[in-house]
Write a structure and sequence with these properties.
21 strands; single chain; 7-stranded parallel β-sheet; 16 helices; alpha/beta; 528 residues; 23% strand
Length: 528
């Protein structure tokens, strides 16, 4: 794959583009294109440049669809891929110098006239909606015929079954690009093991491309009041950088809700160090608020008049990038570890390779956030291609294979249980069921086959291995295994596997139902 030498890619970006290059050439001639490529690059490592170079210059991709999980990310991608900002203009390539026209797709109407060659940028939801009605299906089919390749930014957002089915239905090679590639989130895509690229955060820190994170564990009692929290944050920020937040060195504050975003913003506005401005972001704010600092959508953080402090709940977890973000503080939020990694990802960018640059995490959680970040660093240090492809169900299955075929336990010789065909009769005879069930009156819509399809979709979504022991017009029995970590442990994992059974029997117009994992049945499948 040839692209202009003036586009100076970092080594990890060039390696990722080479992986995509080989994948697209191989998929073009392959009988099946069901396996997706996966590119893992930490936030701030230049994922958009990787997508842009491959989408504009790959010889096997004249017509490219780029998908994002949300409109804000879509809009930013369209600007950067089109040369309006970011990587391409920094290297002297504006829209006129790029080989393909980039078009933002906001509605189905935008797909009425597809270019001979080019790059379309849309949201996954919009394309998924095309498959839901006969009136829009024609647009989806035209898009599938048009498309040579699909790039999915923030590719970990594919656990939704309909999204996965929609992307596969385009019948084009798919490249998933993500900063947080956890296998259980990618389970509905088969990943091409020869088309995996992994870049670690620690490698980009060592290269100076990302800033190392300095974690300051602050007094948790500062959370007692919003004024005390803001003062504590300012004290730590000034202690770290020698000055208050500014347009050149911004501070992000994440809050737990709309009201808190507004309240923290007001405290910052009233503070002696708040003169450099604040913007408060929340999806529930009015589009044209009378308070100029309250916004529904984030402005450009690198604009000359951008405020110094940015307060939000969800708006700055991804899709808003700027090297001027340097520090993050979190007020009373304990979300997922992924959300923490995404939030810290806003403040680690160092595109100018400034020597000695650092990012700052201010932790008022009595060490909870600091501990989560340290565990992420240990995870990142051990991240491998093989590790990405191993979900909890695969790990548990590997443990299973080390067990003996038969043992003496609970006063009996018992054979090892294995999911799969071949022993359905024996397993049916082995079942010992709880003496409880639900009784439902069926409707004309109910059928065993529909219940089986819905149940299998549920098990596949959850990565639960399952075996259908019997199915007829009046009976269904499925064994399935849940795999989770023990709730008794906060910072460690202990895999707990539980065998469950789903049984349905039709007796006249009554359905006898038991699911040992669910309290009730799957709604909308002919029960009442």
């Amino acid at each position: 794959m040839d692209y202009p030498q003036g586009l100076t890619l970092w080594p990890h970006q060039a390696a990722a583009v080479a992986t995509i290059d080989a994948y697209l050439k191989r998929r073009r001639s392959a009988a099946s294109i069901s396996r997706a490529a996966l590119v893992n690059v930490p936030t701030g490592g230049g994922k958009t440049a990787i997508i842009g170079v491959a989408a504009h210059w790959h010889p096997c991709a004249e017509r490219v669809l780029v998908l994002a999980p949300r409109t804000a990310i879509r809009n930013q991608l369209a600007k950067e891929l089109g040369g309006a900002r970011g990587f391409f203009p920094r290297h002297g390539f504006d829209a006129a110098a790029l080989p393909k026209v980039v078009k933002r797709v906001s509605t189905a109407i935008d797909l009425a006239d597809l270019p001979e060659r080019g790059i379309l940028v849309s949201t996954i939801q919009l394309i998924d909606d095309l498959t839901r009605s006969a009136g829009k299906r024609a647009a989806y089919d035209r898009l599938a015929d048009w498309c040579d390749a699909v790039f999915v930014d923030e590719g970990h957002y594919e656990p939704a079954r309909s999204w996965s089915r929609t992307i596969r239905g385009l019948r084009a090679p798919a490249v998933l690009v993500t900063a947080t590639p956890y296998r259980n989130d990618l389970k509905l895509f088969e990943i091409d093991s020869d088309a995996l690229h992994v870049t670690r955060y620690e490698a980009l820190v060592a290269a100076g491309i990302l800033r190392p994170v300095v974690v300051v564990e602050a007094d948790p009692t500062a959370l007692a009041t919003q004024e005390g929290f803001v003062q504590s944050v300012y004290d730590i920020f000034v202690g770290q950088y020698g000055a208050a937040p500014s347009a050149e060195r911004k501070l992000i504050i994440r809050c737990d809700g709309e009201a808190t975003v507004r309240q923290i913003g007001n405290v910052v506005r009233a503070h002696a160090l708040g003169a450099a401005g604040v913007v408060c972001l929340h999806e529930r704010f009015a589009p044209a608020s009378s308070q100029a600092w309250e916004r529904r959508q984030p402005p450009d953080p690198e604009a000359a008049d951008a405020p110094a402090v940015w307060v939000h709940q969800h708006k700055l977890l991804e899709g808003v990038d700027g090297p001027s973000f340097h520090a993050v503080a979190i007020f009373d939020v304990r979300g997922s570890a992924r959300a923490l990694v995404q939030q810290i990802g806003r403040v680690v960018r160092n595109p100018q390779l400034v020597a000695g640059a650092t990012a700052l995490l201010i932790d008022h959680s009595n060490g909870f956030l600091a501990s989560s970040w340290r565990r992420y660093l240990r995870y990142d240090a051990t991240l491998t291609k093989a590790g990405i492809l191993r979900g909890l169900d695969e790990i548990a299955g590997q443990l299973d294979r080390t067990l003996p075929g038969i043992i003496y336990i609970d006063r009996q010789f018992r054979e090892r249980f294995v999911h799969g065909p071949g022993s359905e009769g024996e397993l049916l005879n082995s079942l010992r069921l709880p003496q409880r069930c639900q009784l439902w009156r069926s409707t004309a819509r109910f059928s065993i086959s529909l219940l089986r399809a819905a149940s299998e979709a549920r098990f596949e979504d959850a990565s639960y291995p399952f075996t259908v022991l019997e199915e007829s017009e009046d009976a269904l029995t499925i064994l399935f295994t849940s795999v989770d970590s023990s709730p008794l442990l906060q910072d460690h994992y202990f895999l707990e596997r539980t065998l469950h059974v789903l049984i349905a029997r039709r007796v006249g117009d009554t359905i006898v139902f038991l699911d040992t994992l669910r309290v009730s049945v799957i709604p909308g499948h002919g029960f009442r």
